[in-house]
Specification:
This protein is α/β, with parallel strands linked by helices and about 280 residues long. The chain is built from 9 helices and 12 strands.
Length: about 280
């Protein structure tokens, strides 16, 4: 794989300062406020000898853009035999170019476009197709519930951009012993997880998380992305959706919601928590 480090143009902050007027109890003042940056990222992909094709445009917070591209491509089944090279476009910091080792699966690309531009598939049909793509995860590991309850505070302690802006989602990857492996932030919940899972795509030697903690709710798509990445335990500080629970039960993912303080709800595969 050729070098994957971002170009200097992409080394930008994920926050920006703006002027605001605040009022409190009838008193007003002008001050500076920090906001999370939101900009489009276009992902262009090509196989060997192919022309680049634009496969996605997503609104994101700049930073870890190559990981975002890799994670999104993996979750959509577009990676094939893997990535040969990836780089930021030298002329546009909001474009990433990805070269694949094998020809681009244009049938998957067409299907993705058809689904996103129509009413979509039945949820359970989508789960069945996911099961065919990645299979159900095997048993293990076992994690103590007491360890799981310590993770939300540790996630907040490491949310650097959220602390300064109050406007970002986070996805954190932990080892089975609770060691923090990586944390990614973004204005989009899906983007934060794609950045986290894309890290392993770009660096196969990086430790794979046993636990992913989400700063918000757990949707079907987030459970799907975790299952494709081989993450056995997904925990969220807020609620899961009904389809997320169905997907977790089918795909062998332990799904935890409302992880707050010393309590949580376990919606799927509680045996990994010894329950």
């Amino acid at each position: 794989m050729r070098p994957l480090s971002p170009s200097p143009m992409l080394r930008r902050t994920g926050a920006t300062a703006v002027s605001v007027v605040t009022f409190d109890g009838g008193a007003t003042r002008r001050r500076r406020d920090r906001l999370a940056v939101e900009e489009p990222l276009e992902i262009r992909v090509a196989g060997p000898g192919e022309d680049l094709v634009s496969v996605a445009v997503t609104m994101r917070t700049p930073g870890h853009d190559l990981e975002l591209a890799a994670g999104l491509l993996a979750s959509e089944g577009l990676l094939g035999d893997g990535i040969a090279a990836a780089r930021a476009c030298p002329d546009d910091p909001n474009v990433v170019q990805v070269g694949l080792r094998a020809p681009l699966r244009r049938d998957r690309l067409r299907r993705r476009i058809e689904i996103s531009s129509s009413c979509g598939l039945c949820g359970h049909t989508s789960i069945d197709e996911l099961l065919q793509r990645c299979g159900a995860l095997p048993p293990g590991p076992t994690v103590a519930p007491e360890l799981l309850t310590t993770l939300p505070d540790r996630l907040r302690d490491h949310q650097r951009l959220f602390a300064s802006t109050g406007g970002l989602h986070a996805a954190a990857g932990f080892a089975a012993d609770g060691a923090l492996l990586a944390l990614r932030e973004d204005v989009g919940r899906h983007n934060a997880l794609d950045k986290l899972t894309g890290r392993a795509v770009l660096d196969p030697a990086a430790p794979r998380p046993a636990i992913v903690l989400l700063s918000g709710r757990a949707s079907f798509e987030l459970v799907q992305k975790a299952a494709i990445a081989g993450v056995p335990i997904v925990a969220a500080v807020s609620a899961p959706s009904s389809l997320a629970v169905d997907a977790a039960r089918t795909l062998g993912v332990t799904l935890v919601g409302f992880l707050r303080g010393e309590r949580a709800n376990v919606y799927a595969h509680p045996q990994r928590l010894g329950l």
